[in-house]
Design goal:
The chain is mainly alpha-helical. It has a domain of 83 residues. Helix 1 crosses helix 3 and helix 3 packs antiparallel against helix 4. The protein is globular. The termini are far apart. 23% of the residues are buried.
């Protein structure tokens, strides 16, 4: 199956967006093997590359950051499989931080002793 064409990076003013679309154009076969964690599969996307065949990635930090990471690792000689593992690991760590942040206890101490105990 042929890869979808990506949009021309030069049409974007943001350097991060331009870089991400450039990466997509340069390493089509690598991004075609990468997952995307922005839930774009609801729009019919099958890989990270699909996010760069339209304007979708212009407003999606997840897509932009995944493509930039893939480009960096590709320049270091990493395989598509190693890049996929790095993306999955990075997204797993982000998800873990997000889930922990939802469990923070925002109880306000009522006494000086509680405040002292909380700080120690």
């Amino acid at each position: 199956m042929p890869f979808p064409p990506t949009l021309d990076p030069s049409q974007f003013q943001s350097s991060a967006v331009r870089e991400a679309y450039s990466v997509a154009k340069q390493i089509l076969e690598v991004l075609g093997q990468q997952p995307c964690y922005c839930y774009c599969q609801r729009q019919g996307h099958r890989s990270l590359l699909d996010c760069f065949a339209s304007l979708h990635a212009t407003s999606c930090d997840i897509c932009i950051n995944e493509a930039r990471l893939a480009g960096q690792l590709s320049r270091q000689g990493k395989t598509a499989e190693a890049i996929r593992a790095a993306i999955i690991q990075k997204q797993g760590l982000i998800s873990e931080v997000r889930s922990k942040s939802h469990r923070i206890n925002f109880a306000v101490p009522n006494t000086k002793k509680e405040k002292h105990d909380e700080l120690t």
